[in-house]
Amino acid sequence: MRRPLPFTAPALLAPMEGVTEPCFRDLVLARNPPTHLGGAFTEFVRVVDHPVPRTVLRRHLGPSARPTPFGPPSIDPQSFGPRPIGLQLMGSDPAAIEASAANAADLDVAVLDLNFGCPARGALSTCAGSALLRTPARVTDLVRAAVRGVDGRVPVTAKIRAGYDDDRGLEDVAKAAADGGASMLTVHCRTRAEGYRDDAVDWRRIERAVRAVSIPVCGNGGVETHADIERMRSRTGATFVMIGRGALRDPWIFGGGSADADSARAFLLEYFDTLVLRGQFAPAGALDRCKQLVRVFRAGNIVEEQGGPKAWLAEVDPVRFRARLVDPAPAPSATGVVGAK
Question: What are 124-163's pLDDT values in tens digits?
């Protein structure tokens, strides 16, 4: 019997490697109420040939399941009430997936998700992620293993791409995940070969998956604005919409509001400070993470107004980078006159 899904709204924050660690997730959750953002997912936890220990899984979950003691109250992810955090696993060994899923259920995770979509070379080299799209029977086996591991305590979901080199096998993979006992199927609308190309977005593939299975489908890919959330649902029949890069550009995309410059600066400042305060990164590491976000961040127009991404990415001093967020005024020149050359 499939467990019910715990999400509080149709829009979900996607799992993104190197991005949706606890600090970023908590900041996004703290700015979007449950009626706008229904849940979030961890970046994938790699499962090789042995179970992932509970300590590692707990680290990926972070403090989001309870009020956080770090930083000011504005970054408390529970400021709007609790939200489900899905834990994503990626691997190809059924026994290791089953045991890791059991460990996750012991931690009382809200959702256990399996990654069948990662196109990275590291995943492909170990026959994990999107490599498994070529063998639907193995998708069924892995979903079934996770369902056995959680033993009815947690809903198991699966995330796939539209295909490996092409989308001809989409329905077969979708049915394979459902046959394994998945409670929800997320479909990224590009194939592995198409990567993240903007010209490859094809929501018709999500609609095909909706028609192929009886479980709820979550659409993913090509959501650039708040209006796209309902547009995808109405065009494809998807129950949920998972937002990845759109949330990096604008963490307020879930509710449709526009952040002003002060709010946008506060987001980046709290991101930098929280990474350091929680001990996840030294200031130099926090700088690298923030610069990664600044490449696409468009909220409040602050990046463009302060020289564009290149000016931010050129900064190598964490103190000066943080100062940009505290005081947006241009730094004085050697003459002491702002803007002088």
Answer: 656 678 889 999 999 999 999 999 999 999 999 999 999 9
Q: Which residue has the tokens 């394994």?
A: 180
pLDDT tens readout for residues 37-70: 999 999 999 999 999 999 999 999 987 443 333 3
Nearest to 7 by CA among 84, 73, 74: 84
How many whole angstroms separate alpha carbon 332 and alpha carbon 341? Answer: 10
CA 177/CA 99 separation, integer angstroms: 19
pTM above 0.85, yes or no: yes
Q: Give the CB-side neighbour count of residue 191, counting CA atoms within 13 A.
A: 12
Shortest CA distance to 178 belongs to which of 132, 150, 216, 207? 216
Tell me which residues are annotated as active site: 118
Residue 200 class from Cβ within 10 Å (0-12 exposed, 13-18 middle, 19+ buried)?
Answer: middle
- Please say whether the beta carbons of 105 and 151 come within 8 A: yes
Q: Where are the domains of the chain?
A: 11-249, 261-326
Helix 283-294 to helix 261-277 angle (10° resolution) is 150
Could you tell me which CATH number the domain at 11-249 has? 3.20.20.70
**Secondary structure element (H or E) that encloses residue 199, with its range:** none
Report residue 80 as tokens: 């709007």
